[in-house]
């Protein structure tokens, strides 16, 4: 407890000595949750309750330019989270460094509702080993990706402190770089407190700032990833490189639908074709159809992909889901990341560079 008190003494000094014109938040919170056994073979190692803590710093800008980024007030910042999976011999601990965006749904009065998306990197200190730790089919690389979605209630009991209660859905995976890679999904509840620097009440923005284009947009781009060749723990990573193109149609200020096509070449598939002497091509192509949210400069896409060509002896599924996050850097250039999944099984992640024509 004396460490927590000391933490907030430091934050009070920071508020006095380092005051800024924009709102600054410094926070600490605790987590407690459970692991989802999304396949039957995970049940034996999923009967624990992860717990941990998180420290973070963030800012909230109130300018019209910042507000138009998501047509809302929102915080952005960095957090460090530690999780203990209550199974030291098999699952160990994780250390997570993340970037997050947190738009507010409500901001009037002391009670505020927000949704946070987090993305970052995690270090796992206990991973799969064929001899010493064969049970851990969740993690096979020390460095992996961390994703989280959180629904938050923030209660400002004065202009300096806010109490927050959050429901969090956390996911850790190495993106298909090495196998086994079942990945961990673990919801948590968290409670914490924020120290706020230079708090000012948030006021409604003029309606004309919400104007949006109803015209079609067209995009094309490239994506790349690394995948393990044999889907085994010790296999070597191989590149996957692809191109894509499509169209985006707004339906409202934040909703729209999209369709397109993508083509990629997977050197890990080629390695499997060679090893297993298969009569398959390593090219895959698909048409995509889906929905997207456009919130200022952020795109959140949920798509179904239907294969037109694929290595059928390696990939038995004819359809997949793709979940993508794009951020517009400039007027047309956009960067992003996506996750491809088959039902409840995440397969791999990639990075994307997109050019959008409006």
TrEMBL record:
Pfam families: PagL
UniProt KW keywords: Hydrolase
UniProt-recorded Gene Ontology molecular function terms: hydrolase activity
Gene3D superfamilies with a match to the protein in the record: 2.40.160.20
UniProt-listed InterPro entries: Lipid-A_deacylase-rel
Protein name, per record: Acyloxyacyl hydrolase
Organism: Aquimarina gracilis
């Amino acid at each position: 407890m004396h460490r927590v008190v000391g933490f907030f003494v430091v934050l009070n000094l920071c508020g006095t000595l380092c005051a800024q014109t924009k709102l600054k938040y410094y926070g600490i919170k605790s987590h407690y949750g459970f692991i989802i056994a999304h396949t039957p073979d995970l049940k034996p190692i999923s009967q624990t309750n992860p717990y941990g803590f998180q420290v973070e710093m963030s800012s909230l800008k109130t300018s019209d330019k910042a507000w138009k980024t998501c047509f809302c007030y929102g915080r952005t910042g960095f957090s460090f989270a530690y999780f203990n999976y209550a199974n030291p011999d098999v699952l160990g601990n994780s250390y997570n460094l993340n970037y997050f965006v947190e738009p507010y749904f409500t901001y009037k009065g002391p009670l505020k509702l927000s949704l946070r998306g987090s993305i970052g990197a995690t270090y796992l200190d206990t991973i799969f080993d064929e001899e010493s730790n064969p049970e851990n089919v969740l993690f096979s690389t020390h460095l992996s990706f961390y994703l989280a979605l959180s629904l938050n209630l923030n209660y400002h009991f004065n202009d300096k402190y806010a109490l927050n209660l959050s429901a969090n859905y956390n996911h850790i995976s190495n993106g298909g770089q090495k196998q086994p890679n079942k990945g961990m999904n673990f919801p948590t509840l968290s409670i914490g407190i924020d120290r706020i620097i230079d708090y000012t009440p948030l006021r409604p923005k003029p309606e004309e700032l919400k104007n949006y284009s109803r015209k079609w947009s067209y995009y094309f781009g490239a994506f790349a990833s690394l995948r393990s060749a044999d889907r085994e723990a010790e296999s070597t990573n191989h590149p996957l490189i692809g191109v894509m193109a499509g169209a985006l149609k707004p339906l409202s200020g934040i909703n729209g639908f999209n369709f397109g096509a993508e083509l990629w070449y997977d050197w890990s598939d080629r390695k499997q074709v060679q090893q297993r002497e298969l009569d398959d091509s390593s090219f895959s192509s698909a048409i995509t159809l889906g929905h997207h949210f456009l919130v200022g400069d952020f795109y959140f896409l949920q798509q179904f992909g239907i294969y037109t060509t694929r290595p059928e002896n390696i990939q038995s599924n004819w359809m997949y889901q793709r979940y993508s996050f794009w951020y517009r850097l400039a007027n047309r250039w956009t960067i992003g990341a996506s996750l491809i999944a088959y039902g409840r099984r995440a397969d791999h992640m990639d990075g994307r560079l997109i050019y959008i024509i409006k």
